[in-house]
Amino acid sequence: MKYFYNKIVDAVREIGPGLVLIFIIEIVFFSITSEYFFGWNNFKNIFRASTIIGIMALGQTIVIISGGFDLSVGSVSAATGMAGAWMLQQGYGFFTALFTAIIIGGIIGVGNGAITGYGRINPLITTLGIMSIVRGLGFIVSGGYDIAIRNKTFLKMGSGQIFNIPYLAIILVSLFVVVGLAIPKFTFGRYMYAIGSNERACVLAGVRVNRWKLVFYGTCGALAGLAGAITSARVGVGAPQINMGVELGVITAVILGGTSLAGGKGRIAGTFLGLFIVSTMSNGLVMLSVPTFYKYVATGTLLLFAVFYDERRRSNFAKR
Predict the structure, then answer these.
(1) Number of folded domains in the chain?
(2) Which residues form the domain of 189?
């Protein structure tokens, strides 16, 4: 118990108590302004809405800490969700469809890493191009039509619950806990921070930087693949237009949670907090019957705040 307490304290110090305060203020404000906000049923809705963005944000955190960037996660999730739905339509089972989505996402991610590392192309340009290519191919292959899902086990992943806890909440929390605890203990995590902090120094030290980029981007792609499968399970279809524009929420959660755009700095726990700041805000606005398009204004404002906050922290650190 003391170990977990110390981890929480360290995470709060790293991301700053200001963000924790913002989250508390959100909870208090929406609880006062909406009688339906503060209740387990609504918190379950927040968890369900957070899972897809959260899983992609987890992968995005890994990539950004390592000094990269991935704008293709939304398109990858759409393509992998369709792939999983197609496998189910062909008569394959739950696990085959799920692993197909994850593997295809991982392969696309490795492609991003190869182009960025070995091709020496800016990650923004690489992933922006892959985002467009994958999304376009999804529409071409499907003809723009949805792929219906009838596998009850697969659909239950998106809507089922145990002990009044949604499966999605269990999946989300488990992923963050496992990855968060594993990163400091394995070479994966150490090289992730080292490469993001100073890639050139890592090259001179003999680190296989480009190979590790394949791992980082591949992990991000695999997590986007899982998010795509979960999205299809939630909506009941695989469709080329799902998760369009989700990148805004993903990047906002990551940067708001304290991950530096410059790389080399960030915590998984911070992304988790940033995710729920974004999701709670969106849910609270819905509870107040605020028109949907205001959510984009609020999310964009949060993103600008997060980038400004990141710049201020880096400036203060440089002055020390």
Answers:
(1) 1
(2) 48-243+259-265
